[in-house]
Design a protein that fits this description.
Elements: E1 2-6, H1 10-21, E2 25-29, H2 33-42, E3 59-61, H3 64-68, E4 73-76, H4 83-90, E5 99-102, H5 115-122, E6 128-132, H6 137-141, E7 146-151, H7 155-165, E8 170-175, H8 178-200, H9 205-225, H10 236-247, H11 252-261, H12 266-270, H13 278-292, H14 298-308, H15 313-321
Parallel strand pairs: 1-2, 1-4, 2-3, 4-5, 5-6, 7-8
Antiparallel strand pairs: 6-7
Helix pairs in contact: 4-5, 8-9, 8-10, 8-11, 8-13, 8-14, 13-14
């Protein structure tokens, strides 16, 4: 089928190459002219996914309307803070029965909407599928075995996305808990920043294990308050993605946290980086969402204070350890 990918960062590029390798006629939209040239002429995204050969049949363009027009499957892989605007721009060109796939992980600032909710508002009538799970773009591009989740309230749409992306090295499971799958993908970035801070501050494996475990607890608590199923957070889009992002050397959010844990300010840690660490924006949104739903998220609160209020990372862990003693099972 005809597929379009909107956003040529590392993740969007890896997904577009996968679709093209699976035999689908696939185009990808890139904002940067050099990325378009690199994909079309060198079959490589030299800016965002350097060193990985892409499917030779993959085509790139700067013309957003041209890329999405007539596509049966449209994948959005833009930074979360750009999704609403770009989705609105594509709306006039989408066919009424196009399946929309959201590969962006985050919570919208201000409105506190999940990315699938943004798509549902801006692209009414199109079935929406959230794609999430433990998946570094570089490893997908390299053909490393990967398993992720396609979640939708529309079972046929989820199955269609499963079929389009699945290959011998890329396994897609379907799910109906969109809230849980999306929140897992968004909140794990906050916990990855926190884990990096712990590592950067020189703390050990005991501290990291405690933070990951309690971080999962916080994610589940907020998810249940929003209507998600707690079991979803024990799956690929929850625990799987959390472990990968908190421990993997390719994690941008963990790397940013390490720099801040070593004493850098947020501005210093972000300086000179082209790629987005979604955990920064998601921290603020998650903290506000937790307040709206009266959910306790002490780790997210602490990350917020370190990122935006100047608290030293070394001072934060003792504060978490000094919190009121309680049962572990406090959902």
């Amino acid at each position: 089928m005809r597929c379009a990918v909107v956003g040529a960062g590392a993740w969007g590029t890896a997904l577009a190459s996968l679709l093209s390798s699976n035999g689908h006629e696939t185009s990808i939209w890139a904002l940067e002219p050099d990325v378009v040239r690199s994909i079309n002429e060198l079959h490589e995204n030299s800016r965002f996914l350097k060193g990985f050969a892409l499917a030779s049949s993959l085509c790139a363009a700067n013309d957003l309307a041209r890329v999405v027009e007539g596509a049966a499957l449209v994948v959005y892989a833009t930074p979360s803070h750009h999704l609403r605007r770009i989705a609105a721009e594509t709306k006039p060109r989408l066919t009424g029965n196009a399946t929309v796939v959201i590969a962006t992980k985050g919570i919208e600032q201000g409105r506190l909407a999940l990315m699938s909710e943004v798509a549902a508002v801006e692209l009414p009538g199109c079935p929406v599928v959230a794609l999430s799970g433990p998946s570094f773009a570089a490893e997908v591009a390299a053909g490393q075995p990967t398993a992720i989740v396609a979640a939708s309230a529309d079972e046929r749409a989820a199955i269609a996305v499963q079929s389009a992306f699945s290959s011998s090295r890329f396994r897609v499971y379907t799910h109906d808990d969109v809230i849980g799958v999306e929140l897992g993908g968004a909140l794990k970035n906050v916990m990855a920043v926190a884990t990096g801070m712990v590592e950067g501050a020189g703390l050990g494996f005991n501290s990291r294990a405690a933070l990951i475990t309690r971080g999962l607890h916080e994610m589940t608590r907020l998810g249940v308050a929003l209507g998600a199923h707690s079991a979803t957070f024990a799956g690929l889009a929850g625990l799987g993605d959390l472990v990968l992002t908190c421990t993997g050397a390719l994690s941008r959010n963990r790397a940013l946290g390490i720099e801040i844990g070593q004493g850098a300010t947020l501005d210093e840690a972000l300086a000179g980086k082209e790629t987005v660490a979604e955990g920064v924006l998601t921290t603020a949104s998650a903290r506000e969402l937790a307040r709206v739903h009266d959910v306790s998220m002490p780790i997210a609160d602490t990350v917020f204070r370190i990122l935006f209020e100047g608290q030293a990372a070394r001072d934060a862990v003792p504060e978490l350890m000094a919190r009121e003693l309680r049962s572990e099972q406090d959902l």
